[in-house]
Design goal:
The complex is a heterodimer of chains A (180) and B (245).
Chain A (H helix, E strand, L loop, with lengths): L5 H11 L11 H4 L2 E7 L3 E6 L8 H15 L4 E6 L12 H9 L2 E2 L18 E2 L22 E5 L7 E6 L5 E5 L3
Parallel strand pairs in A: 2-3, 4-8
Antiparallel strand pairs in A: 1-2, 5-6, 6-7, 7-8
Chain B lengths: L4 H5 L2 H19 L8 H25 L2 H6 L10 H4 L5 H23 L6 H26 L3 H15 L17 H18 L25 H16 L6
Helix pairs in contact in B: 2-3, 3-7, 6-7, 6-8, 6-9
Organism (chain B): Streptomyces prasinosporus
Pfam families (chain B): PaaA_PaaC
Protein name (chain B): Phenylacetate-CoA oxygenase subunit PaaC
Amino acid sequence: MVTTTPLEERLLELAGSVPDPELPVLTLRELGVVRAVRAHGTDSVEVDLTPTYTGCPAVEVMSLDIERVLRENGVREVTVRTVLAPAWSTDDITDEGRRKLREFGIAPPRTGAASGPVRVGLGPTRTREGGRPADGPEPVRCPHCGSAETELLSRFSSTACKALRRCLACREPFDHFKEL
Amino acid sequence: MTTTPAADTVPTAAALALGDDALVLSHRLGEWAGHAPVLEEEVALANIALDLLGQARVLLSMAGDEDELAFLREERAFRNLQLVEQPNGDFAHTIARQLYFSVYQHLLHDRLASGDGPFAPLAGKAVKEAAYHRDHAEQWTLRLGDGTDESHARMQRAVDALWRFTGEMFQPVEGLDGIDWPGLERAWLDAVQDVLGRATLTPPEGPRSGAWRAGAGRQGLHTEPFGRMLAEMQHLHRSHPGATW
């Protein structure tokens, strides 16, 4: 592992400040997708970017935005590399990122979810405050009213990374950033 | 054929086999756009197709130029399983195809991800995506199998019709040396039979291997519907070479 220079730290901060093209309330740093920045000399920079989903169409826009921001800050040559390993997980979203998602009306992913989708029974999957096994998943809370009483409408929503749910308390439908 | 540095380290045949599976199934699922029974399902099938397309792009790029491989190869050069090229049929056929393939893909990528071969990074991501695809297929299999008389009959027809294409999945793929194929097949059979049982469906009994079996997709032999699918998939690219947005 090469030590990060102060210049690379600054460039990493710049690259991480780019807003996510699909969820502009989040920065790429809060989403956890900018892995590393390596400077070769003073005007050539390589950025490691990891996709949320393999087929995420936002990766190309992210790369272009990172290039633009770094160029505007005096870097002459920018190369954005897509790296797959270690695989991105929703656990890489920062606490600040989760708070912003909630504010934006999207239920943030639950943490410690690397084991994949929560196995469910038939019918709409409901979560509630009590009555779950100690090792069961925590409830998905409505980002509007905070109720834990919500149900799954569809495992896939407006983008691959989200599921569609409805709050049983305030009846509002909402997106839930799926655990990955 | 030119030798690139990557050819020394990447098993091209395996990258094509796995990449073509993902590409072809992605295209089939995309055909549901505008035709799915409900809006949520339209979105779900499109999202699954997008995941598969992303995997296909990574895998085909390991074997060469992704666009050339996808749009300029002839039918006999594709190495996908015959299962994934089968037409969508009714919704039950699509779900049966999803069940058979997503359980296979989930189990296979889980094994590839835990190794240190060239496919481990992609498999580490794909296994998480395939887990959602598998869950989707299993839930629909249960709902349709254990649903109305009509949905039960259709789901049974679908799992029966596609059964003969499932033996091919466990033919060893050149370049995936660390995989225990008989073990993979046992795990697949256990998982699929468990779901079919819970869905009150009868596990099909027809041959999956042996003298009479379907499945030479990995050798480049495909079923009749595949040619028509390719024609549609490739015609825009071939009609307008080099076109850009």
